[in-house]
Amino acid sequence: MSSPNYLIAPSILSANFAKLGEEISNVIASGADWIHFDVMDNHYVPNLSIGPLVCEAIRPITQAVIDVHLMVKPVDRIVPDFAKAGANVITFHPEASDHIDRTLGLIRDSGCKAGLVFNPATSLDYLDYVMDKIDVILLMSVNPGFGGQKFIPSTLAKLAAARQRIDAYTAKSGREIRLEVDGGVTVNNIAEIAKAGADTFVAGSAVFGAANSSDPHCYDSVIAKMRAALGA
């Protein structure tokens, strides 16, 4: 069995939006831990996805953590809307905020856990000044904007560097910070990604690609295989 510290967070960007509520219910019933909610504005990233109204609509469907990843600029205006809509975790890109410390404070003051998201070429140095306000560090292992991309191998070294920072901070403060990875996570590479230091895994197409409309437990197999790989 895998460590209970590992969390699997399917990204609904790869779900069937014509039956989104059903998809979310099925994937949670199949053993997923969080629901990853990708928000794109066709400005910060070259795609347009979903907003607070969809978050509000799915909140009554599940008690699972809704993990909102904001790929928007500016970011502060939309934070309270997602908090009111039922988000539990809100992460954003440092490049999208003029005042990172303030935005992290806004998220936490709104009742959510807060985190920073790092694109493949974004330095981890932003963490030097805000570790006390961060609950989640999310590393993009693809360039954000589209699902179905392949994992960028250099993310493994970056995960290890982020894990060192987290472990040093936790040893000093006693406070835990989750290390999440998003992009190209599959059954075949999840163990290697975990070994590099990740404990929370966003998987979109790898999970929802197993869809079978006639079987409400169609995601059982792929999630079970991921947990088995993590346990090994």
Write the layout of secondary structure elements.
Layout: E1 7-10, H1 20-29, E2 34-40, H2 52-58, E3 65-71, H3 79-85, E4 89-92, H4 100-109, E5 113-118, E6 136-140, H5 155-173, E7 178-182, H6 190-196, E8 200-203, H7 205-208, H8 220-231
Parallel strand pairs: 1-8, 2-3, 3-4, 4-5, 5-6, 6-7, 7-8
Helix content: 25-40%
Strand content: 15-25%
User: Which outline best applies?
Assistant: globular
Query: Rg, please?
Result: 16 Å
Please describe what this structure looks like.
Helix content is 33%, strand content 18%. It is an alpha/beta fold and 232 residues long. The chain has an 8-stranded parallel β-sheet. α5 links the parallel β6 (136-140) and β7 (178-182). The radius of gyration is 16 Å and the shape is globular. The mean pLDDT is 93.
Task: Put the structure in a nutshell.
By secondary structure, the protein is α/β, with parallel strands linked by helices. It is 33% helix and 18% strand. Strands 1-8-7-6-5-4-3-2 form an eight-stranded parallel sheet.
Which descriptors would you attach to this protein?
232 residues, alpha/beta, TIM Barrel, eight-stranded parallel β-sheet, 8 helices
